[in-house]
Amino acid sequence: MALRQIVTKEDDVLTKKSREVVKFDDRLAILIDDMIDTLRDSGGVGLAAPQIGILRRVVVIEIDPEQGCLELVNPEIIETHGEQCGLEGCLSLPGEWGIAKRPYKVTVKAFNRNGEEYTVTGEELLARCLCHEIDHLNGVLYDSVAERMLSSSEIEKYNAGELDFADESYVKLED
Fold first, then answer.
1. What's the order of all strands across the beta sheet hosting 97-102?
2. Among all residues, which ones are annotated catalytic?
3. Tell me: the pLDDT tens digits for 97-146?
């Protein structure tokens, strides 16, 4: 396994649509393993292949290390419910945070590294991550869908525990 470099928003690869994976082979397995290593090393919760400069429809998400990493190849959102609006960041936009509206619950159809189809349903943070990472596959960065980006003083206050974006004015649970 190897750590890959995470590209930042200045790299135009992040604005391009990723191609579908058609070969489920050792190269794909190596890519997924490298993405997992890179994600874990970064301290983030999700990583899409374009974020390491590869235009393929591959995503890894790990919210809870004890539950392991979710591997999604050719993911497609097939159902959404409700909405949530809250704080969001991105490994490709280091130091930036915004308030983004996402579905509260999302169901995604994807394939695993062996080409076996499955579905996953996530709520709250997992739903947010699924949408965020699938946006990357379509060349969309969260700052373009955020309701607003935070100022540097808001980020400082948030990091100091003086500001909380999880109150009723920012979160709308499922209807």
1. 84-89, 97-102, 146-149
2. 133
3. 999 999 999 999 999 999 999 999 999 999 999 999 999 999 999 999 99
